[in-house]
Hints:
This protein has helices at 2-6, 190-213, 254-270, 277-287, 297-307, 313-318, 325-343, 345-352, 363-375, 379-392, 397-420, 434-440, 444-447, 453-471, 474-497, and strands at residues 62-67, 72-73, 77-83, 94-99, 106-115, 120-130, 137-146, 151-159, 173-177, 181-186, 221-226, 234-236, 240-243, 507-511. By secondary structure, it is an alpha+beta fold. The site of zinc ion (ZN) has 6 residues, from helix 3 and helix 4.
Amino acid sequence: xxxxxxxxxxxxxxxxxxxxxxxxxxxxxxxxxxxxxxxxxxxxxxxxxxxxxxxxxxxxxxxxxxxxxxxxxxxxxxxxxxxxxxxxxxxxxxxxxxxxxxxxxxxxxxxxxxxxxxxxxxxxxxxxxxxxxxxxxxxxxxxxxxxxxxxxxxxxxxxxxxxxxxxxxxxxxxxxxxxxxxxxxxxxxxxxxxxxxxxxxxxxxxxxxxxxxxxxxxxxxxxxxxxxxxxxxxxxxxxxxxxxxxxxxxxxxxxxxxxxxxxxxxxxxxxxxxxxxxxxxxxxxxxxxxxxxxxxxxxxxxxxxxxxxxxxxxxxxxxxxxxxxxxxxxxxxxxxxxxxxxxxxxxxxxxxxxxxxxxxxxxxxxxxxxxxxxxxxxxxxxxxxxxxxxxxxxxxxxxxxxxxxxxxxxxxxxxxxxxxxxxxxxxxxxxxxxxxxxxxxxxxxxxxxxxxxxxxxxxxxxxxxxxxxxxxxxxxxxxxxxxxxxxxxxxxxxxxxxxxxxxxxxxxxxxxx
Length: 513
Ligand SMILES: [Zn+2]
């Protein structure tokens, strides 16, 4: 488990707004140990200084990644990411892709740009290669970086259409309309099977959100169900995306995640000039009674303080999405809960929607000014009162283990994605637009995922960690985490010495001069 506390504490967003501004993951605000007295029982594991976790291979050349994940089949609408080496300056450069030997051989060109919340520099080609009329077999795909870049060729194997795995051949998009929501999902998936019994649950989440926030949704909430894990399993933008699969290795509880994202959806409609990220996420966590699960927020924040994991409010406000994910959300949720308990929801809400941008761009300074106006209180004074409240809280010893293992578990999820399920890795997730997929009739990008025996083994272990953690079986959870650590260490080593068999992950190879 220790490995997962050593991993980079970089931008971690369970529910980042799709297409939101891209924070620089290198400017990570990290939780630094404080001089807080440590609890006597059990001995907590302090978070060591985080280290960087560069993506494998990136410094060695261009990396090509194809979508959908896994083997490609005749009929696929293929998307291509050409990922730049980190050392290359790519401004005003582009990539041209051609398929050798075909009449319609030109797949076009695309400029390099920042992709995902991690801002990875790459040229992205969405559904650029229609393979419907091709024969199965090998194709030579030529990549040219222009101007003056390398030119190289990759071999792409198209398998016969009849080999496309179930449920995809018969799968299509389907929509269910509820009073609250328009739910889009793919037939033949776990969600499609469970949808009759999930409709009440989904409607209930929306009604709860309306009741808590005192406002109706102005429209039906558009929801796209992802039949695989992407990121931490939830995204909110102009529509909501949530993962639903029987083999969900990121511990998502559908009701919990939907409730959280619906809060964001309505919160955005309610508006405010500047809604600081710490309060946006804090409000969603507080009103949902927890982050990934129901949890006592203020006692868990008290644990963070005792562990030396508490992040000062100025730092957390200014760098919320670049702070350690689970700590930031727990602390933000506890802070909102503390303020609502002290001032009442209406006073908090009036303050929250009345925060104005500060010239410096610092959200902490904007918060400070609004706090003084509404509560005659500086951010420093609020923090003193908040911490005093946390120090007063008696802590159940089990809570230390639960908080420590929760952080370690999600670090393990992210490390697994980074190495073995890269389309799901939150910083650079492959999340095509749901509406466009429905218009084009494309389902493969969401249905296919890496499914080597190693993928399945580690996902099973992650599911076990979550199950044991929720049951309070901390020793068993830690044991499974240790096994995951050993497996991922080996993968990382093989990446580093260049012998890793990428198999179905679809890292095709490296371009070179
Ligand atoms: Zn959120």
